[in-house]
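Researcher: We're reviewing a set of sequences before deciding which ones to prioritize for further study. For each one, I'd like a predicted 3D structure that I can look through quickly. This is ABC-type sugar transport system substrate-binding protein. If possible, include the structure in token form so it fits the rest of the review sheet.
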Amino acid sequence: MKTFIGRTLAALLALGSVSTALAEQFDDGLAPSYYDTFKGKKVVFLPLAMSFDLPQVWAKAMETQGKRLGYDFSVRDPNWSSDAGAQALTTLITEKPDLLVVHNPDMQVYARLLQRAQKEGIPVIQINLKSVATTDAYVGVNWYEVGLHQAKMAVDACSPAAGKSGKIAIMQGTPTNPNNAITMTAIEDTLAQHPDIKVVSSQSADWDATKAHAVASTVIKQNPDLCAYVGLWEVMDAGVAAAIREAGKTGAIQLITNGGGQKPACDNIENGTFNGYVSYDAIGQARDLTDAIAQVLQVKATPGSQPYGIYTPIKDISRETMRANSCWTMEDVAAAPF
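Model: Here's the predicted structure for ABC-type sugar transport system substrate-binding protein, in token form for your review sheet.
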């Protein structure tokens, strides 16, 4: 009996060795070189800040992919400081990682440094906020499309032809940010075709919910027949929502915003805080980003010589169109196979 068990164990161990060897890599003519591409590479992420959901999702995806494929992943967090970000980027250029992933604070501040990085042989992927410099890849939303969708929601909700006042207000973030600058262009282009819609206020709150609350409170008091507020980011627009609620006008003033589609957004749609929402699905962006990393590192083109884009499909969510899977959770991100 002991001999039988011993032989069985030896056979299982041998089988395990064979399975492990086979699992290391089957040569289909491409897979070995694919996996070898990533071993020992260094990928560095320079976000706006790590204090909110979007960069947290992207970073988790890169961390997961890095562990799976064998590249080293790290984050340099400037915590909303453009100066700190520029200094970090300057340092990274001297360190020469194999790939930089950059979330720009505005359209200009990193542009020359991104071009310099490419001249130094470092490929660059920009995520969701693109500078005026075009790099190896841009992964993210088309902000003009977002603006078109939000403006149409406002027009549909507030048209005098439907018995509404036609008065809307806009809560901007930072005018030089790509989100703000491009989205506002789309909103203005759309409203130019609808002269019956009047913008009674268009002010900036620097992406800060407290500032947005103060501005919105004043605008609502000055315009008792305000029909809608169009905001350019859901986190900031929580301040607008509070001002609407405090004025007793939840539902009477439509709040139209955009964001990455995390579960709290759907909760706010369900409870009537948000009336229109344009989602750019951050978890989908994370998959696009990891795909772009795989492509850029495999192709090994001269940095900047073959730029391309992966533009995020967007979806409009309202209480009527919302589904159980319309939004994601951080648990979904942790479980995703990036």
